[in-house]
Amino acid sequence: MADDDHRGVLVSTEQNAPQGTVAEGFEPVRREFGAVAAAEGGDYAAQLVAYVDGERVVDLWTGPEITADSLTGVFSSTKGAAHLVVALLVQDGTLELDQRVSHYWPEFGVEGKQDITLRDVLSHRAGVVGADAGLLPEELADDRVIAERLASQAPYWRPGTAFGYHALVIGALTGEVVRRVTGRSIQELFEARVRSRHDLDFHLGLPEEHESRFLTTLPMLPTPAQQAELDAEETGPLSLTGIAFNRNHPRMVDLGELPNLRVVRAKGPASFGGVASARGLAGMYAAAISELDGKAPLLKPDTAAAFAQIHSIGYDVVSRAHKAFGLGFQALCDIYPVLGAGAFGHGGAAGSQAFADPRTGLAYGYNRRRFAYPGGPAPENERLIRAVHAAATAAAR
Question: Could you tell me the pTM of the whole model?
Fold first, then answer.
């Protein structure tokens, strides 16, 4: 059941209708979420939460088995949590964006990597997207192991000349820098400085006592036409894409299975291993830019602006598509033009999406259980974000 610590309008609980609450003026979001659920049909199960200026205005869920308190693997939405920690350390003066990684981590400065900066890594320009021999699934779950393997790895392109999505390793690279400087992991700092501060349902390392709330990720169910498109776009295991997604290792599991492995949930690798609810996703971004629970925003406006500023835009040599990245975050205004310049966040492979839009005070979190076609932030996010943004804009008038 939804908690009742915020002003809202009770939503119908009839079968297949969204459950939860919306604030006055946000009823169109409930209707749009219901329309998405009707269009998806089947066993569609999802959560949608939004905040405006630190007030929760949307808190909805729908589908079999799922509740407001359910947790699922959020894949690359984890990167937003990890790099919120990095942003805090830069804000503190503990890390410097233009310092060489090898200054913090001397073993990294080999094989042409000696001049790579923290900024290069955060903007996916380092070229260290994977390991030549790949990694076992249990190795992928451990950021320390990934970092040890990548320290001696030659980059796959001349650093700084191109950018490509460091899908499964960016959090291990930035995490090793964090560990060398602070003596603590990104996971430990996220727990201390972000999650526990606001009691967020977003975990980088899921405690055993919360396992009963976890819903396994269900596989994509593409139509025959969709499967044909996926097959046509398939890349080889030794391509940049294959290496970045660890398909060059013969024992790599399907990407969608990663959060279903207890070792991944337990260790919470900072690139893809987070477990959260939509409340946790949206709440984290609300805490980043707004006063929440009587506490000041985590990020100062200039820090948020610096990390949201586009650093890499255009053709991504790993994804083989147009992408836009800030520092550790995706530049969301490039994906969803309705958002304000400077919106930052990150989506995940199964369909999750989460962000903050400092210009409007909007924080958004969406989570779904079944892996969405074609992978990445689910297509329905566009219509849901438009509905939330329109309601927030109307409420501000």
Answer: 0.95
